[in-house]
Amino acid sequence: MNEVKRKKKTILIIDDRKDDRRLVKLLLKKFDCEVIEAMNGTDGLDLADKHQPKLILIDQMMPGKTGLETVHEFRQNLDMKVNMRLKDVPVIMLSSRKFDQGFTDYLKMEGIDYHPKPVKSKSLLEQIEAAIGPLQMKSSKKPGTAAGWGAKPKASWGVKK
Amino acid sequence: MTNIFAPFARLVSGKRRERATEERIQTVSHDLRAPIHATEGYLHYLLERESGPINQEQEEVLESALDSLRYMKRFIDDMLDLAKIEAGAMVYQKESTDLQSVLNETTDLFKFAIREKGLIFSLRIQPGLPNAAIDRDRIRQVLTNLLSNAIKFTRREGRISLSARANSQRILISVADTGIGIPEEQLRALFARFSRLEVERSADEKSEGTGLGLWIARGIVRAHDGDLWVDSKKGVGSTFQFTLPLNKEESR
Asked: What is the pTM of this model?
């Protein structure tokens, strides 16, 4: 494996709540990926444009743009605003909206995966791996799988930057 | 008592703006639930062994914490429903509805609990039952409340029967059980806010009620121009019945 060329997978989390973003970071800290975060849709779009994430996790209910509006902004060419660099990035929507078949059907139609809050660690990791392929454990050289709990990570789960 | 609701009442004051009020309450509901969801997420993280092995005692502690949070979410939902009903700000989307599907959907939710408790369940719907003019989700909420009470207060191998029939004016739905029944002295206060049967706390702590369910259920039924009442005898069982309006355009 070529260590130099291998690029870390970047995952962008857009959620107005710090505790929700922190949980996702906690969940991903043992994997060799970079997690970047934004508090709202507008900042999220800026970050996404700058960092070209492999995956976007986004909350639906946020002040300002909702999650869905944010996704529409880079995916749909309603007013020719479609961002060609981002339009194929997979999206998993996190929402605490009560179960509503109509809403989840709509998301499916739009090709947006859905994970209801509260976050269930294993099933969210499965959804993430289904979207971007197996995640690599930080401490091991071989591709790990999210199904196990793997080696103890050394890093604390504070914000990296 | 009224002071407790003052903040909620203020939230929902402003008549004729039911829709806006409902939306505001939805936002409050979301803001109250969000930290609970985050906490649940963290507990699941530990329970699913993401941070390493845990022993049985730790697992039980985490499960208990999750139970408490689930109760808190039910309580928030019920408090907000109460606030909406009190302020007359509950928005009902009444449309012509096939009750059979609502009854089936609701009983599906309880199939597991019924089987687990070894209860005998029957559903009888009058053939050709006409459509009702109702808010489907809200009536499902009423049925869910009545059925979960019936299951909670009926001992193993007891019987629960749900039935629906119509006359020329209205539809009558009945949920009858052979459960522990309600003592006469508690019957009158049953529909009051924060009314809980005395046996309830010890019966099943996991599904402890908020004491608001029946009050809300009756509020919903009354907003449909119907009524909800109970007949009960201690040691024999309880029958809750409520009426719903027919969909006028279709009845002939």
From this structure: 0.74
